[in-house]
Every structure is written in C-alpha cells, then in structure tokens.
Design goal:
Blueprint: E1 7-11, H1 17-28, H2 35-44, E2 49-54, E3 59-69, E4 74-82, H3 91-105, E5 110-115, H4 120-128, E6 132-137, E7 147-153
Parallel strand pairs: 4-5
Antiparallel strand pairs: 1-2, 2-3, 3-4, 5-7, 6-7
The structure holds coenzyme A.
Coenzyme A (COA) binds next to β4, α3 and α4.
C-alpha cells in the first residue's frame, strides 16, 4: 500500500448491497454478478464475502467472494474486484489474503480459482498467494471462451 488511500477490510453486510453491486458493474460490466448473488452468498456464509472500504470516504472500492463446496473439501475464490482508480496499491492482495485465510480456517483441503487466460493482473495476484495454473477448460461458461483454472494445494502444509 502506498499510503494514498486508507483502506479497511470488513465482512460484507446487507447494507452494502447497492454499493457492492455498483463496484461489480464498474469492474465487470455485462459480466457482473447481481445483487441477488451477493445477498445469497452472504446468507450461505457471511465469513466468505469481504469488502474493502476507503476509510476517509466510506466508499466501497473492492470486494472478494469465496465459497466452499464438495462436502467442505474445496474452497473457491469466486471473485476479486478492485475499482480501477484503486488498483496496484495492495488492495486485491489484502482481499485475497483474507479470503484464503477464511478458507484455511474452514479447513478446506484444496483452493481453486479461475481466470481469463489473458488476465495477467489476476493471474499474478493469485500466483503471489501460492496458486498455480493447473489446466484450462474450453467453453467454461458455455461462451466459446477458455478459462484458466488455478489451484493452491494446501494439503500437507
Ligand atoms: C486483479 C485485481 C483484483 C488486482 O487488484 P489490485 O488491488 O490492483 O492488486 P494488488 O495491488 O494487490 O496487486 C497484488 C499483486 O498482483 C499483481 N498485479 C496486480 N495488478 C497487476 C497488473 N496490472 N499487472 C501485473 N501484475 C499485477 C502483482 O504481482 C501485484 O504485486 P506488486 O504490486 O507487489 O507487484 C484488479 O486488477 C481487478 O479488479 N481487476 C479486474 C477484475 C478481475 O479481473 N478480477 C479477477 C477475476 S479472475
């Protein structure tokens, strides 16, 4: 963090829905998750949705969503997003570290995340936290586009 912004992480709360969805729209456009998605993820596991807030303005500038599946064995990082103006200041890393810590605390045995193969920023970020590309999958979202799958194998640590 270069000190330009004073950022705090906190768990997502339902009062954040509108702002969080705005951040999502600004970052992903037509590929954005909906308000319903954030609310339902929060209902499923409130420890796995985090937001980054600019302390000075109270503005939400990023978020991270995670989930646990396969009988508690596999933790998924579903989404890491930071508003463009706030990038390259360590906020994505802070969010991801929090998500990974929560998944570890839940004792998952594997962690997975997917990315567009060209998304250098996301891939580097995930690699910094110990994820490694394991395979690509064609038509991942049924859209003709390939998706890179990265895994952080935490067994035996
Ligand atoms: C990916 C994203 C969340 C990174 O957020 P961020 O706050 O800028 O990331 P950080 O500042 O914490 O960067 C952490 C590390 O990630 C890597 N990284 C981040 N942005 C990068 C870029 N544009 N190019 C190369 N590496 C980058 C670097 O290794 C960086 O560490 P460093 O600054 O010490 O070199 C952000 O770019 C974003 O929201 N992108 C659009 C949404 C998206 O693609 N999300 C991922 C979906 S799979």
């Amino acid at each position: 963090m270069d000190g330009t912004h004073d950022i705090a992480l906190r768990p997502f709360a339902p009062r954040d829905l509108a702002q969080c969805t705005d951040v999502e729209q600004a970052v992903y456009g037509s590929g954005a998750y909906s308000t319903y998605f954030f609310r339902q993820l929060h209902d499923l596991n409130p420890a796995l949705v985090w937001i980054a807030e600019d302390r000075r303005t109270g503005k939400i500038v990023g978020h991270l969503c995670a989930a646990i599946g396969q009988g508690g064995e596999v933790g998924w990082i579903l989404n890491t997003a930071v508003l463009a103006h706030y990038r390259r200041q360590g906020i994505g890393r802070l969010l991801l570290e929090r998500g990974v810590a929560e998944l570890r605390a839940a004792q998952v045995r594997r962690m997975l995340v997917t990315s567009e193969p060209e998304n250098v920023a996301a891939i580097r970020l995930y690699e910094r936290l110990g994820f490694r590309a394991v395979r690509t999958e064609a038509d991942y979202y049924g859209d003709g586009y390939e998706r890179l799958i990265l895994e952080c194998d935490i067994e035996g640590e």
